[in-house]
Amino acid sequence: MSEHVLDRLYEVIDSRKGADPESSYTAKLFAKGQKKIAEKLGEEAVETVIEGVTGDAEKLTAESADLLYHLLVLWSAAGVKPDAVWQELARRQGMSGIEEKARRNT
């Protein structure tokens, strides 16, 4: 796959592991651990949902960016590479959601 902004951002995020938490927000998240990172992702998801309901496209855009950033931090903390997610999405392409869910439940 061609390099995407999310791939580049992931590389920057991943490079912050072990960095000084006083000089990097990302390093501060890593220092708090995967559970706290997941909790922060949940907060960002709720904020994104709220903006989706209110209908303010500009705020939804900003919250979506925050959500994606925190998702990438969680992937990095968990050792999940973006390419693995892109491959999973590609595998599901062209398959109905109903069919995909049925395959997961077997």
What fraction of the residues are assigned to beta strands by DSSP?
A: under 5%
Instruction: State the CATH class.
Output: Mainly Alpha
Write down the overall geometry.
Answer: globular
What's the alpha carbon Rg, rounded to whole Å? 16 Å
Order of helices and strands: HHHHHH
Question: What value does the average pLDDT take?
Answer: 92
Largest sheet descriptor: none
Our measurement of the CA-to-CA distance between the termini, rounded to an integer number of angstroms, reads 30 Å
CATH superfamily placement: MazG-like
CATH topology: Helix Hairpins
What is the tally of helical segments?
Answer: 6
Helix content: over 70%
Provide the domain count.
1
Number of β-strand runs: 0
Q: What is the structural class?
A: mainly alpha
Low-confidence stretches: none
Query: Which architecture name does CATH use?
Result: Orthogonal Bundle
